[in-house]
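Hey team,

Filing this mostly as a record. A colleague (T.K.) asked me to run one chain through the structure pipeline before their review meeting, and I want the input and output archived in the tracker in case anyone asks later how it was produced. No errors, nothing strange. Just documentation.

Input sequence:
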Amino acid sequence: MISDDNLVRNTLNHAKDALRDGDRLSARRHAQKTLALDPENEDAWLILAAVASPEASLVYIKRALEINPNSARARQGMHWAIQRYRT
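Output structure:
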């Protein structure tokens, strides 16, 4: 039997791989599965932000920052999302 931690890690890795391969739909689906198992997973929120609309990206990154206010990646992502939103 696969533990919850292993399942979270596996689904998150699938999301990262899909994002790297440019498969936005699969990345979103696997990130959502990760969040169903672990709603506090910062990486999954950032992946959702990467594949979402500019407006939704802001919401997802804000959630990642609530989880980890000191996250340099989330702060960098917020700057990226704000630029996308403004254009």
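Quick notes for T.K.: The radius of gyration is 13 Å. The mean pLDDT is 95.
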